[in-house]
Amino acid sequence: MRTIKIFDTTLRDGEQSPGASLTTPKKIQIALQLEKLGVDVIEAGFPIASPDDFNAVSLIGQKIKKAAVCGLCRALDQDIDRAFDALKGAVKPRIHTFVGTSPLHLQYILHKTRQEVIQMATAAVKRARGYVKDVEFSAMDASRTDVKYLCEVIRAAIAAGATTINVPDTVGYAVPSEWGKFIKKIIALVPAFNKNIILSVHCHNDLGLSTANSLVAVEAGARQVECAINGLGERGGNASLEEVVMSLRTRKSYFDADTRINTREIYPASRMVSELSGIAVQRNKAIVGANAFAHESGIHQDGVLKKRETFEIMRAQDVGWPCNQIVLGKHSGRHALKTRLSHLGIKVEGKKLQKFYERFIKIADRKKEVTDADLKRIKY
Ligand code: MN
């Protein structure tokens, strides 16, 4: 079974989410939780972006012992030097440098030819390798880059010393089946990926496909996935760590792959990031939303109470929830009601239960959710 590396970018791409600005002490708190979670790489920030970002990367580098700590930089000398300065105290420093490779980026942002961009990538990776042995190179907007040219850039970056090559769907444009073929083709055209060089993907959620795209890439041979807690990130966000990790864990035998993540730390990490960033998690968000393990329909509640697996593919406790939740409402049946009542120390059987149930349904028709306090007030 392959072990897929989890590269967390909550503190870099996630922090770039409009509305989410994290102070350095908050970033350190999250980094420590990410280490508990067992991520392989923590992208801590973009050191040249601001003195604050520099400080955060530097302090996280000093505090984190097990995970690699990564600083992002453009393929420019001053960026790379600044990233290395920030990472000096890290046990496992990684420099992550990038340059755009799509026609749009070459023409409108970089004003460079294809050959000039290859030279930029080569020079940047060489400079970074002069500082550290763990260097990641990203071809920004790879999903809209001609695959043959992309592979030329990748081969040059590997020749210059890059150890991880990231193929990002920067703008969230890829479609799963096409993306899987794209990744396979890159691996076929760059033999180093069958040796020690790691292919990584970084998928965005503009069309809601970031988790699906990350998973097809794993099937195609990617060995690192970049993601963020709660799917934070630019615009629609990045692939969400919890979805990628739990898809691989739940369907381990299908993917023949897993991660080193301690899944019981997922829910605590999600709560922490939501609280510290101020970005709420939607109720029906997979894995970590308030409804992720909640059951309201009577048929589902009855099934789950008889045998949890009838309507649940994961155990709430395995991702760090205290337990699954039976929400009492108008769709609930007698079985769920009776179970809750017995937890509350209320014993009702037979005709009394029927009467209690009828009163309960009347309340449920008025209110969406019937609470324990409501139940205690019911006379029977
Ligand atoms: Mn991104």
The average pLDDT is: 96
Helix-strand topology string: EEHEHEHEHHEHEHEHEHHEHEHEHHH
Instruction: Tell me which ligands are bound.
Output: manganese (II) ion
Number of continuous helical runs: 15
Q: Do you know the CATH architecture of the largest domain? A: Alpha-Beta Barrel
Question: Total number of β-strand segments?
Answer: 12
Provide the gyration radius in Å: 24 Å
Largest sheet, order of strands side by side? Answer: 2-3-4-5-6-7-8-9
Let me know the CATH homologous superfamily of the largest domain: Aldolase class I
What form results from the Cα inertia axes? elongated
Number of domains: 2
Percent of sequence in beta strands: 5-15%
Structural class: alpha/beta
Which residues sit in consecutive blocks of at least 5 with pLDDT less than 50? none
The percentage helix is 40-55%
CATH topology of the largest domain: TIM Barrel
CATH class of the largest domain: Alpha Beta
Report how far apart the termini are: 58 Å
Description:
The model has no long low-confidence stretch (mean pLDDT 96). β3 (41-45), α2 and β4 (68-74) form a beta-alpha-beta unit. 44% of the residues lie in helices and 14% in strands. The protein has helices at 24-37, 51-63, 77-87, 103-110, 114-129, 147-160, 176-189, 210-220, 241-250, 252-255, 266-277, 298-306, 334-343, 350-366, 372-377; strands at residues 2-3, 5-8, 41-45, 68-74, 93-100, 135-140, 164-169, 198-203, 224-227, 257-258, 294-295, 325-326. It folds into 2 domains: 2-277, TIM Barrel; 294-377, no CATH class. α8 packs across α9 (241-250). It is of the alpha/beta class. The longest helix has 17 residues, at 350-366. The chain is elongated. 45% of the residues are buried. The chain has an 8-stranded parallel barrel with strand order 2-3-4-5-6-7-8-9, surrounded by 8 helices. A two-stranded parallel ribbon has the order 1-10. Strands 11-12 form a two-stranded parallel sheet. Residues 13, 170, 202, 204, 233-234 line the site of manganese (II) ion (MN).
